[in-house]
Amino acid sequence: MDKDIKLVAIDLDGTLLATDKKIVEKNIEAIKKIHEKGIEVVIATGRCFNGFWWIRQKLGLEGFDDYSICNTGAFVRRNADGKAIIENPLEKSDYEKISSYLGEYDLQIGIFTKDVLYNNAEVVNDGFRKDQEIMKLPRLKFKDYDDIEGKVARINFMGDEDKLDRFYEENKEALEKDYMTMRNESYALEVLKKSSGKSNGLKKLCEYLDIDLENVAYFGDGSNDIESIKIAGLGIAMANASKEIKEAADYVTSSNDEGGVAEFLEKLFN
């Protein structure tokens, strides 16, 4: 572990957060400790920027020199004011192309902006409701793209796992000609610009901050973390991650419920 780490990027769900979606206390202490030493600490998440404000607050990451990789890398924002320093929004033409795949499939469409979750159904499904509860964001119903306010970070197809499996199998190849797709939750299929992705957001943020990727440590557990784990100087997988994620990592730490982030940071910086 002889690395000069200048930036630590950490996934939220399944990594920094325990299964109950709370932060293990020793993770808070460890992050504050390295942040006070001048280490950049970056949250890298699939959530919308305003869908984890209380976590940034608890960690003390609210300054003009603090940044978050949001919406699976579609946006990188400054924590103090939410200003986008890197953005890859989906436009109306993208929505029209993506939504055309819906056809007769029994799925809902979710549109995610900085601070609102849009859904096209009268009654939202369980997956959308779960996202809304986790991020504590308002839900608005939309009929067409012109109802959307703010830049669109990602579009989700949402529904039962078996229905999404069939949809993904039948449309994955066509969708991925133009877009990045991500299946990080059983109830959702994310569609983003090809220039999005956590790893692309991490690369661009490091360029912006003039930090080499060799000087980055990245913690993650999910499929949307694997490329970041591979490109970082130190890639750390959680014990609760899949075999594929662990094999891509340089190290495996304890699980999210055991405060694995803190345990590794203490070894790395002490």
Automatic annotation (TrEMBL):
GO molecular function, one term: magnesium ion binding
EC class name: hydrolase
Keyword Repeat set for record: no
Pfam families: Hydrolase_3
GO annotations of cellular component type: cytosol
Top-level division of the source organism's lineage: Bacteria
UniProt keyword annotations, A-Z: Hydrolase
Keyword Hydrolase: yes
EC identifiers of the protein: 3.1.3.-
Protein name: Cof-type HAD-IIB family hydrolase
Species the sequence originates in: Anaerococcus octavius
The encoding gene: yidA_1
